[in-house]
Structure formats: structure tokens, C-alpha cells
Amino acid sequence: xxEKQDEGVLMTRMGSLLHFLVDGLCICCLxxxxxxxxxxxxVGIFITYNVLAFGTQPLTGLWADTMxxxxxLLLIGDILLxxxxxxxxxxxxxxxxxxxxxxxxxxxxxLGLGNSLxxxxxxxxxxxxxxxxxxxLGVFVSTxxxxxxxxxLFFSWPLAFVFLLLICLLSVTVIHYGExxxxxxxxWSKPFGWLLVLAAVLGLxxxxxxxxxxxxxxxxxxxxxxxxxxxxxxxxxxxKMAGGWIAEWLxxxxxxxxxxxxxxxxxxxxxxxxxxxxxxxxxxxxINCTMPVTLYLANEVLKGREGLAFxxxxxxxxxxxxxxxx
Length: 326
Description:
mainly alpha
């Protein structure tokens, strides 16, 4: 039992560090690729990347649930990420505008698919090795937000290749130490009837879309200088991380009630304040605290299909993202 707990802690730590590096790599590479040529390609490139990175996760999540040697997901994801970085770097040498556009969209596709495989691998890894510990779930999902802030703010080709090298080295370490990699297909326990499962999953997906919109409301009102970008990323990270510990202490229902009341208070107060950056950060922190709660509940409803659970909640982010982007 003690060895199982130690493995869960170790895998959560390494998965969280990989989450920071993978999200940081993808955003860093995309910005480094597009920045020298203006913003004309920016929207299309990022829509392509995000739709593939998040929209394909239900499919890659199902794959994670059914394949035997789970770390193939990580290895294939690493290969796709490496290919994405190498293809993206071709923009430095191609001269034709049409060829450059093809390179950009190809790189965004490879990075998006690699990111998708990593996320369902990490979500499944954390849930299985920790027994769906809500604190571990919060820690794993938290670091990506800060990786996006760091990668987007300090983007450069050297940083992208450093991120890629660290991802490869850490992936080898994970595979070496992880006993979980050879688990076969798990049985789906179906703790509820089909109708209740469907209703619960749809309800959680709707809440995730709502959370995405609320997060955008709080973060969009903040002037984005480099310090505030890091502050927003850190706030989202610590919110997701803290949410699991708060839920462990208060329980699921009371945690959601307290957090949503706090979010509502922040929203109402902001309507009366002309300058409330600190209040926006508080609201952003509180709404992000609900992240591990929704993931924990999805894993419980889809027990044995944690990859699918992670993927469905990730895909629920797409509608809100597209509304903000377009």
C-alpha cells in the first residue's frame, strides 16, 4: 500500500512538471513561429492547434482507456511534439508565403495532436496511480496554466528546444520508474445507469464551459503586461492546485457552494468598481478551484474510463474558446 502511494506521488510530480513543459513548449513554439510574420496567421493557427489539442481528447482518451502499454501515448505524443517543433522551425528557411503557411498549419496540427495525447495520458496516470485523489488531480491540471504564461511571454526558439529536451528526458524517467505502464484494459464499473451517467457527464461538461467563460470574464479585464500575464498564470495554477485540498477538507458540495458564492460576490463587486484588478484575480482563483472537483466527479461517474472523462471535459472548453476567438 505504501509503495502504491509513493508511486502515485512520484507520478503526480513528474506528470505535473511534464504538463508545465508540454503546454509551455506548444505556446512557445507557436508564437516563435508566427511572430516574425505578423498576426495575419495568428487566429487560424491557434484555432487549429486548440481544436486539435482539446477537441480530439475524447478520442485519445478512449485510446488511453483501451490500450495495454499506456506509455505508448507519452512516447507517441513526444514524437509528435518533436516533429511539430522541427516542422515549425522550417519557417526560418522557407521563402514562399504559401509554403510557409502550409508549414505553420502542419506544425500546429502536430503540436495539437501531441498535446492531446499527453493530456489524456497524464490525466489517466494521475487518476489511476492515486486512486482518483482529488488533491493529486488538482496538482496535475494546475501547472499547464503557468506553462502557457511562461512559454507565451518568453517565447524563443532556444526556449522551445530546451523545453523539448526536458520533456524527452523526463519522459524517459517516467517510463523507467512507472510500474503502471503495462496495465491492460480496465473494466468500466458503471456505478449508475446509462441515463444518469449521460446526464452527469453532460452536466459536468456544461459546468466546464461555464467555468471557461467566467475565467475569461475575470482575466479579460486585466491589462496584459508581462507581470500581469505571469500573475494570471500563477493565479490559475494555484487555484486549480488549492481546489483539491479545499475539497478534501470541506467536501465536494460545500466546496462548490462556497466557491460559487465567492465568484458571484467578486462579479457583483466588480460591477461597482472602476479598477479592481485584485478582485479579478480573486475571482479567477476561486473559479479555478473548481477544476479538480469536476475532474474528480467525471472520473467517479466514468470509473475505468478516466481517459475518456478527462477528454470530454477538455473538449467542453472548445465552444467557449471559439466564441472568444471569433
